[in-house]
Design a protein that fits this description.
Homotetramer. It comes from Prosthecochloris ethylica. This is 3-deoxy-D-manno-octulosonate 8-phosphate phosphatase. The protein is an alpha/beta fold. It has a single domain, classed as Rossmann fold (3-Layer(aba) Sandwich), CATH 3.40.50. Helices cover 39% and strands 16% of the residues. It has a 6-stranded parallel β-sheet with strand order 5-4-1-6-7-8, with helices on both faces. A two-stranded antiparallel ribbon has the order 2-3. Helix 1 packs across helix 8. The two termini are 18 Å apart. The N terminus is likely disordered.
Length: 181
């Protein structure tokens, strides 16, 4: 999505209405920017409860939610199960490969999708989607190139904010009488 001309807020609202699929990486966006391991080398991961609740809300309201990670681990798989993530692309070589599989699995096109990314490895996906997003703590290079910068950090409410915005613009967020935009 180009942001060089026209009314940014109107273009953002128009894009939010069209989103049918949302994808983001586990690392940096869902679980934050930290990796924690036990002494035996097992990873420990967590996610923000409000993000998990929003993921369930999105799925219940027709927005497909998926996560991507180059790694596979029992801890990540359990976190995703607990959060209600139905589409997990773990062990993929690239986010772009996972994104293409997500679109294929869900019958989506680039113009139906939003992607939240916090680092440069996700640029190939950000360049394809309708709505490109980064958390406030995303790398500066992305903050200067995406459609929307979340007011929240990865792993600390960014997913919740984006899902609320999508569902509000689509008239599906039942917890407010008005749209924040």
């Amino acid at each position: 999505m180009q942001l060089s001309s026209g009314d940014h807020s109107q273009r953002l609202q128009d894009a939010l209405v069209r989103v049918r699929g949302l994808l983001f990486p586990v690392e940096g966006v869902m679980a934050g920017g930290h990796m924690t391991f036990t002494a035996s080398g097992e990873d420990i991961c967590s996610c923000f409860v409000r993000d998990a609740l929003a993921i369930r809300e999105a799925e219940e309201n027709g927005v497909k939610v998926a996560v991507v990670s180059e790694r596979r681990s029992p801890a990540v798989e359990e976190m995703l199960r607990q959060a209600g993530v139905r589409h997990a692309y773990l062990g993929y070589g690239s986010a772009l490969e996972a994104y293409e599989q997500f679109k294929n699995d869900c019958g989506l096109e680039d113009g139906d999708c939003a992607y939240i990314a916090d680092d440069i490895v996700d640029i190939p996906v950000l360049e394809k989607v309708l709505l490109s997003i980064t958390p406030i703590d995303g790398v500066e290079y992305l903050r200067n190139r995406v459609s929307y910068i979340s007011a929240y950090e990865g792993g600390k409410g960014c997913i919740r904010e984006v899902i609320e915005l999508i569902l509000q613009q689509q008239g599906k967020w039942q917890y407010s009488d008005h749209c924040v935009m």
